[in-house]
Design brief:
Radius of gyration of chain B: 19 Å
Oligomer: heterodimer
Mean pLDDT of chain A: 90
Structural class of chain A: alpha/beta
Number of helices of chain B: 11
Order of helices and strands of chain A: EHEEHEHEHHHEHEHEEHH
Number of helices of chain A: 10
Strand order of the largest sheet of chain A: 5-6-7-3-8-9
Largest sheet of chain B: none
CATH class of chain A: Alpha Beta
Low-confidence stretches of chain B: none
Helix content of chain A: 25-40%
Number of domains of chain B: 1
Shape of chain B: globular
Structural class of chain B: mainly alpha
Bound molecules: adenosine-5'-triphosphate, magnesium ion
CATH topology of chain A: Rossmann fold
Low-confidence stretches of chain A: none
Number of strands of chain A: 9
Strand content of chain B: under 5%
Distance between the termini of chain A: 29 Å
Order of helices and strands of chain B: HHHHHHHHHHH
Distance between the termini of chain B: 32 Å
Largest sheet of chain A: 6 strands, mixed
Largest interface: A-B, 34 and 27 residues
Chain lengths: 262, 268
């Protein structure tokens, strides 16, 4: 389903020391630093798999998700998702996938959530019956009935996140990329979202890649874990491979980050 | 196609919500229009012979210009959200959907301009047409002229939207919209005849300005309305509008193709 090999992406980042003098200096001579966000990444994920993609801040998780969703063109390497090169056939590719970027909003800010849903229905050409069914199901499972008629800008972070997740699933995507989907959710909503992701993975064979800093998400959802640090894949295995008897999952992961010095 | 119509409809409804802003705009534009007309009247009084347009036509030009400001001025109709989404990286969500970014922005821009104009045009026209001649807004000389005006106005809307899209797409490369904005606003305001109508430009420079896309955004439809532009000269002007309508869309789409290849969505 997803084949990635030797993916590389380097960003040129302008850097300067603090202060007015240095700001003026930077007008004339900019110093750039090259950041290897992706430094030769390879993995492959089969249909219906659910994979946790973890790593410390700045490891390259979001960059990977962006490449996989066709919004970032890598410098080199091969990537095929469902037989397509994402950034070459963006429009066809994205019709098949659903994406949640936990730190951003995809809903139209000034209109009630349901208006955003209706627009997405037209964008993805979702048949009326399928749309009704999905909205009803999502409303029930994510407890949205009170939220749908509220303008997005008046929702709390967690309320909005639940709507965001629903919005990414209206078109029943075959592949789902979740970049920190549980940010800001309360305990009940977190459990609801996890159950829901499990359910669509089980019932519709949706392939899911999930990045998160919440290791309980990983415990609950992902049988397979890929660890990335400084743009390289460091480990690809099951949670049981990583676990060390009796320790809390967070401690295990912290230990892992230390071990790889990332 | 249906999806772009949906973008258009949603955006149109959203822009109609800003009624208070529109009211403030109308009051402001009404005073501005009155002052401009009085200033032109003073010139006219001193030397009617050197006046390139008939005075009634000038007043009509100014009223229509004020009424249509929200539709035809480059920056009134641009969407700050577009610039924001490029700067803070929210454009990722747009890119994650099966839509052409160009067509989506274009549909949004047309909708925004039309909705804003609707709210402002009606009150300005209503008041201005009640004013005594030669200070008020006169009706077009005949129905045919009226229809040609509407055609030319729609072409003008298309041209200004296509130009807006060029500005949007340039922002992909510069990230900050400040420079692009400053240059394009001052250039377009002046060259489209928003400061001084084009017939008042000195010879030579006027002919040059009339060939630019900016003249197609405001100058042509307003002069068609008042009958100042008629006959073969008008046909030429409308054909020029059609030319720029195509050319600017082409330029915008080429820019977008280049931009999307090398664009780096900002933020993690
Ligand atoms: N648009 C950009 N321009 C320049 N550098 C970038 C850009 N986006 C990301 N980077 C750099 O690439 C590296 C990887 O970033 P990325 O967003 O993929 O990290 P991440 O694993 O998602 O981190 P986090 O857990 O904090 O979300 C970082 O060092 C970051 O500075
Ligand atoms: Mg990230």
């Amino acid at each position: 389903m997803i084949e990635v090999s030797h993916l590389r992406k380097t960003f040129r980042v302008a850097r300067r020391d603090p202060g007015f003098k240095n700001a003026v200096k930077a007008l004339f001579r900019r110093e750039y630093e090259e950041i290897h966000a992706l430094d030769g990444i390879s993995f492959s994920i089969g249909e219906g798999e659910m994979v946790g993609y973890i790593g410390p801040n700045g490891a390259g998780k979001s960059s990977t998700i962006k490449v996989l969703s066709g919004v970032l063109t890598p410098d080199s390497g091969v990537c095929r998702v469902d037989g397509r090169v994402p950034w070459k056939e963006r429009v066809k590719h994205v019709a098949q996938i659903g994406v949640v970027f936990g730190q951003r909003s995809q809903l139209w800010w000034d209109v009630p959530v349901i208006d955003s849903f209706e627009l997405l229905k037209d964008i993805y050409k979702i048949p009326e019956a399928a749309y009704r069914k999905n909205v009803d199901e999502l409303t029930q499972l994510l407890d949205l009935s009170q939220l749908l008629r509220t303008p997005t800008r008046q929702l709390s972070l967690g309320q909005r996140m639940r709507c965001e997740i629903a919005a990414s699933l209206l078109h029943s995507p075959k592949i789902l990329f979740l970049d920190e989907p549980t940010i800001g959710l309360d305990a009940v909503s977190k459990l609801a979202v996890r159950d829901f992701v499990k359910k669509i993975n089980r019932e519709q064979k949706t392939t899911v890649i999930l990045t998160t800093h919440d290791m309980q998400d990983i415990e609950a959802l992902a049988s397979r874990v890929i660890l990335i640090g400084k743009g390289r894949i460091l480990l690809d295995g099951t949670l049981d491979d990583i676990r060390r008897g009796g320790e809390q999952i967070d401690e295990t992961i912290a230990h892992l980050y230390k071990k790889y010095d990332i | 196609m249906k999806k772009y119509l949906s973008f258009f409809k949603l955006r149109f409804a959203m822009s109609l919500q800003y009624r208070v802003a529109a009211l403030a705009g109308v009051v402001c534009q009404f005073f501005w229009g009155a002052m401009a007309i009085l200033a032109f009247y003073a010139f006219y009084e001193t030397d009617p012979a050197s006046f390139p347009m008939d005075f009634q036509a000038t007043a009509t030009y100014i009223w229509l210009q004020q009424g249509l400001l929200a539709m035809l001025a480059l920056y009134g109709g641009t969407d700050a959200k577009v610039f924001e989404s490029i700067q803070n990286g929210n454009i990722v969500y747009e890119l994650c959907r099966p839509v052409s970014i160009y067509s989506m922005w274009f549909a949004n821009n047309l909708a925004n301009r039309l909705a804003r104009a609707l709210l402002r045009l009606i009150p300005v026209v209503a008041v201005a047409s009640l004013l005594p001649a030669p200070f008020g807004l006169m009706a077009p000389p005949d129905i045919a002229t009226g229809l040609l005006f509407i055609l030319s106005l729609m072409l003008a809307l298309w041209v200004v939207a296509a130009f807006t899209l060029v500005v949007y797409n340039v922002t992909f490369f510069t990230i900050s919209d400040r420079g692009v904005r400053l240059v394009s606003v001052s250039l377009s305001d002046f060259l489209m005849g928003a400061v001084v109508p084009l017939p008042f430009f000195p010879d030579g420079f006027r002919q040059f300005a009339e060939l630019l896309p900016f003249s197609c955004m405001e100058n042509v439809p307003l002069r068609v309305y008042s009958g100042d532009l008629a006959g073969p000269e008008m046909v030429r002007a409308i054909l020029l509008q059609v030319f720029w309508a195509f050319a600017l869309v082409l330029i915008g789409k080429l820019l977008e193709r280049k931009a999307l290849k090398r664009v780096v969505v900002q933020g993690g």
